[in-house]
Amino acid sequence: MRNVLLIIILVGFFLCLSGTARHVLSISEGAEIDVRKLFKTHCIPCHGEDGKGTDLGKGLGTPDFTDVEWQKTRPDTRFVEQILNGSEKMFPFKDKLNMEEVQALVVYVRQFAKK
Length: 115
Ligand code: HEC
Hints:
By secondary structure, the protein is an all-alpha fold. The protein has helices spanning 2-31, 35-42, 44-47, 55-60, 68-72, 76-85, 99-111.
């Protein structure tokens, strides 16, 4: 009985995951932006692959992107502003990324809290 439950939970989990993957994919296809690659290139050194922050990032004070409550306190405009202009701790990306790429990254940052 316990195994059956476990299988149901696992299947549900993977269905959710594939849903997220499709979502991200459709965004990158529509705008022809590979947002996963962008995040990997520019953001992972501090924010980590899972969005929780690397040791380097945490040392600087990166927020945990998987924290639903934290996400709620932040409007999209705040994220856009941060990515374009940076902060004391995070350098700006306005010379490296265009607006579409920045918006795709905001969506990408949001999905860390949806798993
Ligand atoms: C040098 C390390 C570093 C890199 C690289 C970096 N960040 Fe950050 N980021 C930080 C730190 C530190 C904070 C939190 C402190 C702050 O706001 O200054 C932060 C905060 C944020 C926030 C939250 C802003 C808020 O509302 O407080 C977002 C969104 C964000 N980063 C997105 C990105 C994206 C997207 C990239 C890649 C394009 C990126 N960061 C690259 C260090 C980094």
